[in-house]
Protein backbone atom coordinates (compact mmCIF):
# COMPACT_ATOMS: atom_id res chain seq x y z
CA UNK A 1 0.00 0.00 0.00
CA UNK A 2 1.43 3.29 -1.10
CA UNK A 3 1.44 6.27 1.18
CA UNK A 4 1.65 9.83 -0.03
CA UNK A 5 3.65 12.38 1.87
CA UNK A 6 2.87 16.09 1.50
CA UNK A 7 5.44 18.79 2.09
CA UNK A 8 4.18 21.62 4.27
CA UNK A 9 5.87 24.95 4.77
CA UNK A 10 5.32 25.59 8.45
CA UNK A 11 7.10 28.95 8.24
CA UNK A 12 4.41 30.52 6.02
CA UNK A 13 2.79 33.53 7.62
CA UNK A 14 -1.01 33.65 7.45
CA UNK A 15 -2.48 37.11 7.01
CA UNK A 16 -5.53 37.56 9.23
CA UNK A 17 -8.79 38.41 7.48
CA UNK A 18 -10.25 41.69 8.63
CA UNK A 19 -13.82 42.90 8.12
CA UNK A 20 -14.54 45.17 5.19
CA UNK A 21 -14.21 48.83 5.93
CA UNK A 22 -17.47 50.76 6.08
CA UNK A 23 -15.84 54.18 5.91
CA UNK A 24 -16.84 54.75 2.29
CA UNK A 25 -20.45 53.78 3.01
CA UNK A 26 -20.57 56.09 6.03
CA UNK A 27 -19.03 58.95 4.02
CA UNK A 28 -21.62 58.49 1.27
CA UNK A 29 -24.40 58.47 3.85
CA UNK A 30 -23.06 61.69 5.38
CA UNK A 31 -22.93 63.41 1.97
CA UNK A 32 -26.45 62.30 1.03
CA UNK A 33 -27.80 63.35 4.42
CA UNK A 34 -26.39 66.84 3.87
CA UNK A 35 -28.16 66.95 0.50
CA UNK A 36 -31.42 65.85 2.14
CA UNK A 37 -31.14 68.59 4.78
CA UNK A 38 -30.61 71.16 2.03
CA UNK A 39 -33.57 69.83 0.02
CA UNK A 40 -35.77 70.04 3.12
CA UNK A 41 -34.84 73.66 3.87
CA UNK A 42 -35.08 74.69 0.21
CA UNK A 43 -38.51 73.05 -0.06
CA UNK A 44 -39.75 74.86 3.05
CA UNK A 45 -38.68 78.20 1.59
CA UNK A 46 -39.94 77.55 -1.95
CA UNK A 47 -43.29 76.03 -1.02
CA UNK A 48 -43.82 78.61 1.70
CA UNK A 49 -43.24 81.36 -0.86
CA UNK A 50 -45.78 79.77 -3.21
CA UNK A 51 -48.34 79.60 -0.39
CA UNK A 52 -47.81 83.28 0.43
CA UNK A 53 -48.21 84.30 -3.22
CA UNK A 54 -51.38 82.24 -3.65
CA UNK A 55 -52.84 83.60 -0.41
CA UNK A 56 -52.07 87.26 -1.14
CA UNK A 57 -52.33 87.68 -4.88
CA UNK A 58 -54.33 84.76 -6.25
CA UNK A 59 -57.81 83.31 -5.82
CA UNK A 60 -58.36 79.77 -4.58
CA UNK A 61 -61.45 79.49 -6.74
CA UNK A 62 -59.49 78.81 -9.93
CA UNK A 63 -58.74 75.24 -10.98
CA UNK A 64 -55.01 75.85 -11.46
CA UNK A 65 -54.53 77.38 -8.02
CA UNK A 66 -56.45 74.57 -6.31
CA UNK A 67 -54.29 71.96 -8.03
CA UNK A 68 -51.13 73.94 -7.33
CA UNK A 69 -52.04 74.27 -3.65
CA UNK A 70 -52.47 70.50 -3.35
CA UNK A 71 -49.15 69.99 -5.15
CA UNK A 72 -47.48 72.23 -2.56
CA UNK A 73 -49.02 70.22 0.28
CA UNK A 74 -47.91 66.93 -1.26
CA UNK A 75 -44.39 68.30 -1.70
CA UNK A 76 -44.30 69.41 1.95
CA UNK A 77 -45.51 65.97 3.05
CA UNK A 78 -42.75 64.30 1.06
CA UNK A 79 -40.06 66.69 2.28
CA UNK A 80 -41.12 66.25 5.93
CA UNK A 81 -39.74 62.71 5.83
CA UNK A 82 -36.30 63.73 4.56
CA UNK A 83 -34.78 64.91 7.90
CA UNK A 84 -35.53 61.51 9.47
CA UNK A 85 -34.08 59.69 6.47
CA UNK A 86 -31.03 61.98 6.56
CA UNK A 87 -30.36 61.14 10.22
CA UNK A 88 -30.85 57.45 9.40
CA UNK A 89 -28.30 57.61 6.58
CA UNK A 90 -25.86 59.67 8.61
CA UNK A 91 -25.88 57.36 11.65
CA UNK A 92 -26.39 54.13 9.66
CA UNK A 93 -28.94 53.06 12.29
CA UNK A 94 -32.58 53.90 13.03
CA UNK A 95 -33.04 55.72 16.34
CA UNK A 96 -36.68 56.88 16.16
CA UNK A 97 -38.49 53.66 17.05
CA UNK A 98 -40.90 51.28 15.35
CA UNK A 99 -43.90 53.62 15.15
CA UNK A 100 -41.92 56.43 13.53
CA UNK A 101 -40.46 53.91 11.08
CA UNK A 102 -43.95 53.14 9.80
CA UNK A 103 -44.99 56.80 9.82
CA UNK A 104 -41.90 58.08 7.98
CA UNK A 105 -42.10 55.28 5.39
CA UNK A 106 -45.78 55.99 4.73
CA UNK A 107 -45.31 59.78 4.62
CA UNK A 108 -42.41 59.43 2.17
CA UNK A 109 -44.45 57.40 -0.31
CA UNK A 110 -47.64 59.41 0.20
CA UNK A 111 -45.85 62.65 -0.62
CA UNK A 112 -43.97 61.16 -3.54
CA UNK A 113 -46.96 59.42 -5.15
CA UNK A 114 -49.29 62.40 -4.74
CA UNK A 115 -46.66 64.81 -6.11
CA UNK A 116 -46.30 62.72 -9.26
CA UNK A 117 -50.07 62.51 -9.77
CA UNK A 118 -50.64 66.21 -9.11
CA UNK A 119 -47.93 67.10 -11.66
CA UNK A 120 -49.75 64.87 -14.13
CA UNK A 121 -53.11 66.40 -13.24
CA UNK A 122 -51.77 69.94 -13.69
CA UNK A 123 -50.41 68.95 -17.09
CA UNK A 124 -53.76 67.48 -18.12
CA UNK A 125 -55.56 70.61 -16.94
CA UNK A 126 -53.23 72.79 -19.05
CA UNK A 127 -53.98 70.51 -22.00
CA UNK A 128 -57.73 71.05 -21.55
CA UNK A 129 -57.27 74.81 -21.14
CA UNK A 130 -55.15 75.23 -24.30
CA UNK A 131 -56.22 72.50 -26.73
CA UNK A 132 -59.91 72.29 -25.78
CA UNK A 133 -60.40 75.75 -24.32
CA UNK A 134 -63.93 76.33 -25.61
CA UNK A 135 -65.35 72.87 -24.99
CA UNK A 136 -64.15 72.58 -21.40
CA UNK A 137 -65.17 75.94 -19.97
CA UNK A 138 -68.11 74.39 -18.12
CA UNK A 139 -66.15 71.32 -17.04
CA UNK A 140 -63.12 73.07 -15.57
CA UNK A 141 -64.75 74.45 -12.44
CA UNK A 142 -64.13 74.31 -8.69
CA UNK A 143 -66.06 71.05 -8.26
CA UNK A 144 -63.97 69.40 -10.98
CA UNK A 145 -60.76 70.52 -9.25
CA UNK A 146 -61.83 69.35 -5.78
CA UNK A 147 -63.04 65.99 -7.09
CA UNK A 148 -59.79 65.46 -9.01
CA UNK A 149 -57.73 66.26 -5.91
CA UNK A 150 -59.80 63.86 -3.82
CA UNK A 151 -59.16 61.06 -6.34
CA UNK A 152 -55.41 61.75 -6.30
CA UNK A 153 -55.23 61.65 -2.50
CA UNK A 154 -57.32 58.45 -2.44
CA UNK A 155 -55.10 56.65 -4.97
CA UNK A 156 -51.93 57.81 -3.21
CA UNK A 157 -53.25 56.71 0.19
CA UNK A 158 -54.24 53.27 -1.12
CA UNK A 159 -50.79 52.85 -2.66
CA UNK A 160 -49.25 53.56 0.76
CA UNK A 161 -51.00 50.65 2.48
CA UNK A 162 -48.22 48.23 1.59
CA UNK A 163 -45.31 50.33 2.91
CA UNK A 164 -47.36 51.28 5.98
CA UNK A 165 -47.90 47.61 6.88
CA UNK A 166 -44.49 46.29 5.93
CA UNK A 167 -42.20 49.05 7.20
CA UNK A 168 -40.69 47.81 10.41
CA UNK A 169 -37.56 47.97 12.51
CA UNK A 170 -35.25 45.03 13.04
CA UNK A 171 -31.77 44.47 14.44
CA UNK A 172 -29.28 42.94 12.04
CA UNK A 173 -27.42 40.02 13.57
CA UNK A 174 -24.09 40.93 11.93
CA UNK A 175 -23.53 44.55 12.93
CA UNK A 176 -26.18 44.75 15.69
CA UNK A 177 -27.64 47.91 14.13
CA UNK A 178 -31.31 48.83 13.91
CA UNK A 179 -32.72 49.11 10.40
CA UNK A 180 -36.00 50.59 9.16
CA UNK A 181 -37.30 49.14 5.91
CA UNK A 182 -39.94 46.89 4.41
CA UNK A 183 -39.60 43.71 6.43
CA UNK A 184 -42.50 41.18 6.21
CA UNK A 185 -40.66 38.58 8.29
CA UNK A 186 -43.01 38.98 11.26
CA UNK A 187 -46.18 38.70 9.15
CA UNK A 188 -47.57 35.16 8.71
CA UNK A 189 -48.74 33.90 5.33
CA UNK A 190 -46.98 36.71 3.48
CA UNK A 191 -45.15 35.88 0.26
CA UNK A 192 -42.32 38.42 0.31
CA UNK A 193 -41.29 37.90 -3.32
CA UNK A 194 -44.86 38.24 -4.58
CA UNK A 195 -45.39 41.33 -2.46
CA UNK A 196 -42.23 43.01 -3.76
CA UNK A 197 -43.12 42.14 -7.36
CA UNK A 198 -46.62 43.56 -7.06
CA UNK A 199 -45.23 46.73 -5.48
CA UNK A 200 -42.70 47.07 -8.29
CA UNK A 201 -45.32 46.87 -11.05
CA UNK A 202 -47.63 49.21 -9.13
CA UNK A 203 -44.93 51.88 -9.02
CA UNK A 204 -43.80 51.20 -12.58
CA UNK A 205 -47.15 51.54 -14.33
CA UNK A 206 -49.25 53.86 -12.14
CA UNK A 207 -46.55 56.25 -10.93
CA UNK A 208 -44.01 56.19 -13.77
CA UNK A 209 -45.21 54.98 -17.18
CA UNK A 210 -48.75 56.39 -16.96
CA UNK A 211 -47.67 59.90 -15.81
CA UNK A 212 -44.92 60.10 -18.43
CA UNK A 213 -47.26 59.04 -21.24
CA UNK A 214 -49.89 61.58 -20.18
CA UNK A 215 -47.35 64.39 -19.75
CA UNK A 216 -45.62 63.75 -23.08
CA UNK A 217 -48.91 63.51 -24.97
CA UNK A 218 -50.44 66.60 -23.36
CA UNK A 219 -47.42 68.85 -23.85
CA UNK A 220 -46.96 67.61 -27.41
CA UNK A 221 -50.53 68.60 -28.22
CA UNK A 222 -50.08 71.92 -26.40
CA UNK A 223 -46.91 72.67 -28.39
CA UNK A 224 -48.64 71.82 -31.69
CA UNK A 225 -51.60 74.04 -30.80
CA UNK A 226 -49.38 76.95 -29.80
CA UNK A 227 -47.18 76.67 -32.92
CA UNK A 228 -50.22 76.57 -35.23
CA UNK A 229 -51.70 79.68 -33.64
CA UNK A 230 -50.73 83.32 -34.11
CA UNK A 231 -49.44 83.84 -30.61
CA UNK A 232 -46.50 86.26 -30.68
CA UNK A 233 -44.67 84.56 -27.82
CA UNK A 234 -45.26 81.04 -29.10
CA UNK A 235 -41.56 80.16 -29.30
CA UNK A 236 -41.04 81.20 -25.68
CA UNK A 237 -44.08 79.11 -24.77
CA UNK A 238 -42.72 76.03 -26.53
CA UNK A 239 -39.35 76.52 -24.85
CA UNK A 240 -41.10 76.73 -21.48
CA UNK A 241 -42.99 73.51 -22.30
CA UNK A 242 -39.71 71.75 -23.07
CA UNK A 243 -38.20 72.91 -19.77
CA UNK A 244 -41.27 71.75 -17.83
CA UNK A 245 -41.17 68.29 -19.42
CA UNK A 246 -37.44 68.05 -18.69
CA UNK A 247 -38.01 68.97 -15.05
CA UNK A 248 -40.82 66.42 -14.76
CA UNK A 249 -38.53 63.71 -16.12
CA UNK A 250 -36.00 64.54 -13.40
CA UNK A 251 -38.74 64.55 -10.76
CA UNK A 252 -39.98 61.12 -11.86
CA UNK A 253 -36.49 59.66 -12.23
CA UNK A 254 -36.00 58.72 -8.53
CA UNK A 255 -38.89 56.30 -8.73
CA UNK A 256 -36.74 54.12 -11.00
CA UNK A 257 -34.40 53.60 -8.05
CA UNK A 258 -37.37 52.77 -5.83
CA UNK A 259 -38.50 50.25 -8.44
CA UNK A 260 -35.05 48.70 -8.60
CA UNK A 261 -35.03 48.23 -4.83
CA UNK A 262 -38.48 46.72 -4.88
CA UNK A 263 -37.52 43.92 -7.25
TrEMBL record:
Thylakoid among keywords: no
Keyword Cell inner membrane: no
InterPro entries in UniProt: CCR1-9-like, Chemokine_rcpt, GPCR_Rhodpsn, GPCR_Rhodpsn_7TM
UniProt topology in membrane: Multi-pass membrane protein
Keywords tagged on the record: Cell membrane, G-protein coupled receptor, Membrane, Receptor, Transducer, Transmembrane, Transmembrane helix
GO BP annotations listed: calcium-mediated signaling; cell chemotaxis; immune response; positive regulation of cytosolic calcium ion concentration
Transmembrane regions: 35-54, 66-91, 103-124, 144-165, 200-219, 231-252
Cellular localisation: Cell membrane
GO CC terms, sorted: external side of plasma membrane
G-protein coupled receptors family 1 profile domain sequence ranges: 46-263
Molecular function GO labels: C-C chemokine binding; C-C chemokine receptor activity
Cross-referenced Gene3D superfamilies: Rhodopsin 7-helix transmembrane proteins
Family indicated by similarity: Belongs to the G-protein coupled receptor 1 family.
Name of the protein described by the UniProt record: G-protein coupled receptors family 1 profile domain-containing protein
Native species: Lates calcarifer
